[in-house]
Every structure is written in C-alpha cells, then in structure tokens.
Amino acid sequence: MTHIDAGAELDPVHPVPAPLPRARGLTAAEVAERVARGEVNDVPVRSSRSTVDIVRANVFTRFNAIIGVLWVIMLSVAPIQDSLFGFVILANTGIGIIQEWRAKKTLDSLALIGEARPTVRRDGAAAEVGTSEIVLGDLIEIGPGDKIVVDGECVETDSLEIDESLLTGEADPVVKQPGDQVMSGSFVVAGGGAFTATKVGREAYAAQLAEEASRFTLVHSELRSGISTILKYVTWMMVPTAIGLIISQLVVKDNDFKDSVARTVGGIVPMVPEGLVLLTSVAFAIGVIRLGRKQCLVQELPAIEGLARVDTVCLDKTGTLTEGGMDVRELHALDGNDETYVRTVLGALGDSDPRPNASLQAIIETYPNGSGWRCLQALPFSSARKYSGASFSEGDGESSTWLLGAPDVLLPDGDPALTETERLNEEGLRVLLLARAGRELDDPSVAEGAEPTALVVLEQRLRPDAADTLRYFDEQNVRAKVISGDNAVSVGAVAGKLGLTGNVVDARRLPAEQHEMAEALDSGTVFGRVTPQQKRDMVGALQSRGHTVAMTGDGVNDVLALKDADIGVSMGSGSEATRAVAQIVLLNNSFATLPSVVAEGRRVIGNITRVATLFLVKTVYSVLLAIMVVISQVEYPFLPRHLTLLSTLTIGVPAFFLALAPNKERARPHFVRRVMRYAIPGGAVAAFATFATYLIAREYYSGPGSLAAETSAATLTLFLISMWVLAIIARPYTWWRVGLVAAMGACFLLVLVVPWLQDFFALKLVGAPMPWTAVGIAVVAAVTLEFMWKWVDRRFPA
C-alpha cells in the first residue's frame, strides 16, 4: 500500500478558470419522461428482511416440519392433551414472526432517517432527493464525504479526488477531470463537482456490487454459527435414535397401537430444541427494538453480538470525543507579521474553498472575506496531506501563495514556531499554521521552505457524555484507543481531560511491519497524525493479536478502517460513505449510545447461553432415555403431555424470562463448548436418574394401571432434576429469579393436587414409598449435578 504525502504528484491543483455556463440538469418534463420509461434508480437499499422472508424463515424450518408431522399423527391417534406440543409450536412461531416484524419496522424507519440523500440539479436548482428518485441523465452534485450512488460521467470538477478503494483495493485517491467515469460505491475525499448519471437501477452493476459489499458483508456471529452447529449434531443423534425407538415401541413391544404411537412420539418430540432458534431471533429482535428507541440503527443484526465481544474500541477524536464544530480562540502572528493582513489572508482562504471542513468553517465565521482578492489556484484539504492552500491575486498587482495546515507537517524539525505549537497542543488546543509558500502551488514540493506567518488556535468542543462513556468501557475491561489525524500532543491532552490516560504516540514514528505495529499499539493509548491508510493498518495489526476491534468515525478518512474493523460504528451526521460501510449508525450522534449497544449485546449472548443449556439438557436426556428404552425393550415412560408439561415449566416459560432479562456478564468465546460442557453431564444425570426411577417403579407396581403409576414416578424425578438444572442456570439469584423458579414448582404441585389436572395430564402418584423414592433419587442426582458442574468448570474452563 502506498501513502500520500506532500510530494505526491496526484495532488490536484487547478487554476480557477473563468466562469463557464453552469449546467442546469434535467427539466421537470425530462424527469417525468424518464420515470415513465422506468429509467429510475429503483434498486432498494434493504435494511432488513421482507415480511415474506420473516414468515418463511419462522414457519418453514426443519424442526417445524418434524414437529408438524408428529402433531398431525397425534391428533389422529391420541387425546388432545397429547397434542399440546403442536399448539406450543404455533404460539412460538407466531411470537417469532411478530417480534421480527416489529424489529423490521424499527429498522426500516431508522434506515429512512439515515438514508443518503444526494443533491441533484434540475432546472438549474439544486435539491436533495432520495437515492431511488435519481433518474438516468440526472446531474448529481458531490463534495467531500459524499458517496457515489450511481455510475456516471464527470461534468464539473473542482480539485475532485475520488477514493475507489472499496471497489479496487487501491488506497490512493484518483483525480477526476470532466469526462472521467465515476463508479458507484466510491466516495469523494477532497474537492467537489458534478456528474451525469449514465447507469441507474439494475443497470448499474457496480452499484449492486458496492451495495453488496457495504451492506450485506455479514458480521461473523459465533452465536448464529454455534447454534447451527448444535442443531446439526442434534439432527445426527435424533434420526437413528428415533428410528430405533419407533421399531422398539411398534414392533418389539406388543402394546395397544395408539398407545405405542403416542409413547413413540413422546420420545421423539423432546429431542427437538424447537424453542432455541426462536428465542435467539426474539432476543435479537427485541434488542433491535430497544436500540431503535435510542436512535441506534443496527444495519446487521449480529453486530449487536459483535460489539458485545469487542475488547478494543478505536475512537476517532473529531466527531466522537469532540463535537463537530470548533471556535477560533486566538491568532498568533509570527515574526512581526501584520495581524490585519493575516486576517485578510485567512478570510480569502476561507472563501476559496466551497466545501470547508470544520476547522476552516470556524475561520470563515471569525474572519469573513472582504478583501476582494481573486483566487487563482486552489488545493483542497486532504486528511492524507494535512494541509490545503490557494494562490491569490491581491488586487494591487501582487500575487501570493498560502498554505494552511498542520505545523509539524509544514515546518521542519526545530523551527521556533513548533515550540509555541507544542505548548498550545499540551492544553488540548488545535493549532493550524498559516504559511506563505515561495513556490507555485502546483509544485510537488510547495511545502518546502514555506515561511511561517501565523498560528491559528482552535478550541474543540468536548462531548459532555464522552467521559462517562470512556469510564464505562474501562470498567468493562474494553480498551479505548484514540486514533486521530490531529497532533498527538493535542489529542492526548483532549483524552486526558476526559480521563483517558496512557502513552501518547506520533503515528509517523510507528513501524510499518504489522507485528511491530501491533506491539506499539498494545502499549499506546493515544495516536496522532494518523493517515487514513494507517488507520486501516492499525485495525489489522490489532486483529492480528486476536483482538476484536470496533472502530468509530464520521469522516471520509475513517471509511477504510470502519470497513476492516470487526464492528464499524458511524455517527448519523457523518459522511454518506461512513454510514454506508458501518454496521451500526448512531443517528442521534451520541457517543453515549455505545454502552447501550454493548449492554444489549451482552444481554443477548449471556442469556442465550443460559437458555441454550436448558434446551440442550432436555435434548440430551431425551436421546439417552430413548436409547436406554430401545436397549431395555420396555415401554417409553412418557406420553407427549408429560413432556409438554415438563418442558413448559422447566424450559419454555423460564427461558423466555431469562432470555430477556438484564445481563452485564462480558461475552466470552467458544459458545458451543461452553453450552455443551454443561448440557451433556446435566442431560446424562437426568436421563440415568429418571430411568433408574422408572425401572424401580416397574418392579414395585404391578397389575392394571401400573404403567400410569410408573410414568408418574419417573415424571416426578425428571421434573425435580430439571428444576434443579433451572435453579443452577438462574444463578446469581435475584428476587424475580427466585420467584420464577418457585412459581414453576408451584404450578407442578398444582397439577399433582388438583384432580381434574391429574386426569388431564395423566399424573397420579400412587402410594408413598415409590414417590419418596423418586424424590430421593432426584436429590442424589441434584447433588451429583452440583459436584459434576463444578468439576467441569475446573476441568474444561470456558
């Protein structure tokens, strides 16, 4: 990769030409004619799945198909009590659709707020329109930070530099002249101009490629891929076990056919963790809705999870720690220069740039131009160059060339002006140098030998919420790195005012080799004079050390780093280019919203890890019970109604509350391993204890009704063990978690004591010895669970 510096020949310096007739663009009649012909940029920017996709994704699933077939079978051979699991699936699917639809509405409304609105010139007047309203032949005006939304041909250029790195991978901006092509997906880094749309809608192939690259490059989701892996393993276990169970119950055992079918289905249904995917999507959807209320647009759902896993946040100072505007605090004339003349120069420089950045805007507001000087040549500001410039005819026959930019870039080391600059930087002030150039503006070495004339001191406005946000990240063990193009000392002083301490590093002294750069980044906290390409390299270096990196920014110099970071966060007031590549857009421009996103991600990941353990304990004990039944050649101990009751009370209802509860636990990797290390021993203990109770009951009971009594005893054991698993998962306890576990136990007790519920669920404990034996076995299993899970924690740490 190459870097741009003051000597780069691509710096576009153009004489200011005599005014040419300004292109008027299309007329209203021509626009209407093109709309009628369908020559409209009708490729929608989709921020979320369509309603049809949401319904399809929730209804047509592999497990819904399995459950649906089993439900139809049960409706035809057994009482309605044994078909309750089907109604639960219907309710789950409905909840999933409704919540995702609500999240879609939130996303779409926020996306509309944050949508890019290009400036189009029609009938000689410029107006903002929606991207989808652009027609073929439209004249589109562009300036720094604007994203090129359709393919086109330049008509007007004013020192126009286009960054095409997202399309070509080439880091250097490309200078554009009238007649040059511009590609959708690129963006303006300096200068301005206008181009005619030559390809719109689906004809603009590059637009589709750029949109695909920027909007649908999915964030890696360990949660999503982990659940897919688990479901794949579950399917592999389920199929042969279910076949064995069917043969065992229907062929080997000589039972009533309908009862055998019911018990076979009762063995297969609980193997399916049907609510796990539902609760994951619901948790994400509710997270999107909650963040939407805070004006946070999540362009990719897994970004919520990704930010929760972040351990390093790279912050751009301007627009993130500080507000966009600045104020001129003072003006220091150097070497006896006349301050009145300096003010005149600054006013003329401000007037020479039609699209001033925040620094120049502050100068324009303080020193309005009234000199009548005529601009002959212009050099727009570039974040890679660190300065701008212009040549003027001063009206009295004199001409002069001026540069305005970073003192430590324009001046050689040891210059006396740098000492004063350093002192001001230490106060957190931003300092620009006004220098008179002795060379022509189009000279590649124009900055060499420039005569320092004045220091312009700018005061930056700190965001009032920045200190609290940085403190939050520190408390959560998330390292903050401030990466800025400004002077390192000045940036360090600003960071210090916000309570962020650490080594301050001038990025010009950073090693280029990735390994060495990563070491420097680990030891440093504040980095100044960082070029756009360096920002990208720094993100890569941090990632090479295993860090999960989030990058915040709002300017065009942040685009490459935002694109490469694990999570890109853009301010809503940022450039179109940054909003296009970011996964999260803070529409209210509040850096203080980030902790909410992190907290939401931690809630989702931590809670889904909890409830996944609940679901998979059930899957494990169901598979093991079925295997033991097949080997022992006995009736399956449960009817579907028994397991529906157990699943509802020990998994379904508790999981819903646990999945949506507050959770500040830091997200940890290895989701599958962390879940399975608890689910396998928990499920194994539950299966062996339940089957032991069932076999003892078979020996204890005899005669008519013995199978129902055996089932009731086994159900009691399985419920008590499942409740203990729930009690472990619910830790650490709060009043509502204790209340939740107690309420589920009370509901089961109600079933055991209310006669009509006993009949409905076919649960009746017979005698005293066997029920108390079932309780005793459950107690032993609970103690075993406690010791086993503690051993697992030590033996297989997450």
From TrEMBL:
Is Transmembrane helix given among the entry's keywords?
A: yes
Q: Which domain of life is it from?
A: Bacteria
**Which Pfam family, just one, is annotated for this protein?**
E1-E2_ATPase
What membrane topology is given? Answer: Multi-pass membrane protein
Q: Which UniProt keywords apply?
A: Membrane, Translocase, Transmembrane, Transmembrane helix
User: Which spans are transmembrane here?
Assistant: 59-78, 84-101, 233-252, 272-291, 611-631, 643-663, 675-697, 709-729, 736-757, 769-789
Pinpoint the P-type ATPase A domain residues. Answer: 119-212
Q: Which InterPro entries match?
A: ATPase_P-typ_cyto_dom_N, ATPase_P-typ_P_site, ATPase_P-typ_TM_dom_sf, ATPase_P-typ_transduc_dom_A_sf, ATPase_P-type_domA, HAD-like_sf, HAD_sf, P_typ_ATPase
Q: Where is it located?
A: Cell membrane
* Membrane in keyword set: yes
Please report the name of this protein according to its UniProt entry. HAD-IC family P-type ATPase
UniProt organism field = Streptomyces vastus
Q: What is the lineage of its organism?
A: Bacteria, Bacillati, Actinomycetota, Actinomycetes, Kitasatosporales
